[in-house]
């Protein structure tokens, strides 16, 4: 197969590229490096059949040669990133998705859209099944991301139904692992960075809000199953392991053997209170369930953050803290 991965130099995209190359597929990673980095795929550059193209998928683009699948993963994903790039986020979710679908249509390829649990907003149904329509504030700070993804889902389904493009939608719940940027502002990289530095670990609100956290290897396995299938979705992909942010922070402090104190900061506007995937569909349609124990996954991720130099950061730690602070005051 020849697979185009948009956002291929990002956290999830780079793991997808790596697994596809290991499977023997040809891979074209496309990225504009707004939140990703060449370093994430540097180890693949000498692999036969791997290509990295610098382009912005919000502008029209074509790929030479045959394409069998498009994994559309390009989009800022961390609240800190989409707060500093609101228009770019709206554009990549809308125009970028249209362009990726045009490519899939032109090549007769299957397209898998990386949607998000954020389409459920601050959910009033718990856990969240795919049949739940969500509770999103379109004009809150998170609206630029949530609504872009909701538009992307509607567009993807329209191309399937009116143009016969083979599409699939996955709704990804919080996923973590090596190659997340230590300053991307998401809870796990933030807590690990702070704990390793001996800095206070910043928990928002009283830390009772929950997320359900999935290791990247489990996620990649599910995405490749979705690529190989022909289900339309949407299908939730995530680990139902639900944990409060305070418990998560304390767990990470313990695993890093850090003496960092926990400090409480203001809760961001519209921050979802609970989140847990109902994964019944993923299990019945894809035969998939997450396997990696979260404690092992946290240890590996902490090990990676310890070892890797942080020289390729689009944002400094100070800039990340400043944006998080501004969001809290919003
Ligand atoms: P990431 O920021 O590490 O990766 C996104 C990649 O897309 C980056 O390499 C970035 O440079 C690239 N990109 C952004 N806009 C682009 C554009 N206009 N043209 C080309 N490339 C562009 O984030 P991630 O966590 O790897 O997320 C990847 C995808 O998965 C996103 O679509 C995100 O919405 C989705 N997702 C991720 C999670 C998660 O927990 N990691 C959860 C839900 C959904
Ligand atoms: N969070 C936190 N401290 C931080 C960063 C995030 O307590 O330094 C909280 C955030 O307010 C949210 C949860 O952790 O309640 C998950 O945030 P993240 O950005 O990782 O994911 P998302 O909110 O997009 O699910």
From TrEMBL:
Q: Which Gene Ontology molecular function entries are recorded, alphabetically? A: NAD+ binding; UDP-glucuronate decarboxylase activity
| Ranges where the NAD-dependent epimerase/dehydratase domain occurs | 3-238
Q: Name one GO cellular component term.
A: cytoplasm
Asked if Repressor is a keyword of the record, the answer is no
GO BP: D-xylose metabolic process; UDP-D-xylose biosynthetic process
Q: Which cofactor does the UniProt annotation name?
A: NAD(+)
Localization per Swiss-Prot or TrEMBL: Golgi apparatus membrane; Golgi apparatus, Golgi stack membrane
Swiss-Prot/TrEMBL keywords = Decarboxylase, Glycoprotein, Golgi apparatus, Lyase, Membrane, NAD, Signal-anchor, Transmembrane, Transmembrane helix
* Membrane topology according to the record: Single-pass type II membrane protein
Q: Which domain of life is it from?
A: Bacteria
Q: What is this protein called?
A: Epimerase
């Amino acid at each position: 197969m020849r697979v185009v991965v948009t956002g291929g130099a990002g956290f999830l995209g780079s793991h997808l590229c790596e697994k596809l190359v290991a499977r023997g597929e040809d891979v074209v990673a496309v990225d504009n490096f707004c939140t990703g980095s060449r370093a994430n795929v540097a180890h693949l550059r000498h692999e036969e059949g791997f290509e990295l193209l610098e382009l912005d998928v919000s502008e029209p683009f074509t790929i030479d040669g045959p394409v069998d699948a498009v994994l559309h993963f390009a989009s800022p994903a961390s609240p800190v990133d989409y707060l500093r790039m609101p228009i770019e986020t709206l554009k990549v979710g809308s125009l970028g998705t249209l362009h990726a679908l045009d490519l899939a249509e032109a090549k007769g390829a299957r397209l898998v859209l990386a949607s998000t649990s954020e389409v459920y907003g601050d959910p009033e149904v718990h856990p969240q099944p795919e049949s739940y329509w969500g509770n999103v504030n379109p004009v809150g700070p998170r609206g630029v991301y949530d609504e872009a993804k909701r538009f992307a889902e509607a567009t993807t389904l329209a191309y399937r139904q009116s143009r016969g493009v083979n599409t699939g939608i996955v709704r990804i719940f919080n996923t973590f692992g090596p190659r997340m940027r230590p300053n991307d502002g998401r809870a796990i990289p933030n807590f690990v960075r702070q704990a390793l530095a001996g800095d206070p670990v910043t928990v928002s609100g009283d830390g009772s809000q929950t997320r359900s956290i999935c290791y990247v290897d489990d996620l990649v396995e599910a995405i490749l199953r979705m690529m190989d299938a022909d289900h339309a979705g949407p299908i939730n992909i995530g680990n139902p392991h639900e944990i409060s942010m305070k418990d998560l922070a304390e767990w990470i402090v313990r695993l890093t053997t850090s003496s960092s104190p926990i400090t409480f900061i203001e809760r961001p506007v519209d921050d979802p209170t609970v989140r847990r995937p109902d994964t019944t569909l993923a299990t019945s349609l894809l035969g998939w369930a997450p396997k990696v124990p979260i404690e092992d996954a946290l240890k590996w991720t902490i090990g990676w953050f310890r070892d890797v130099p942080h020289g390729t950061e689009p944002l400094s730690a100070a800039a990340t803290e400043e944006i998080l602070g501004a969001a809290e005051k919003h």
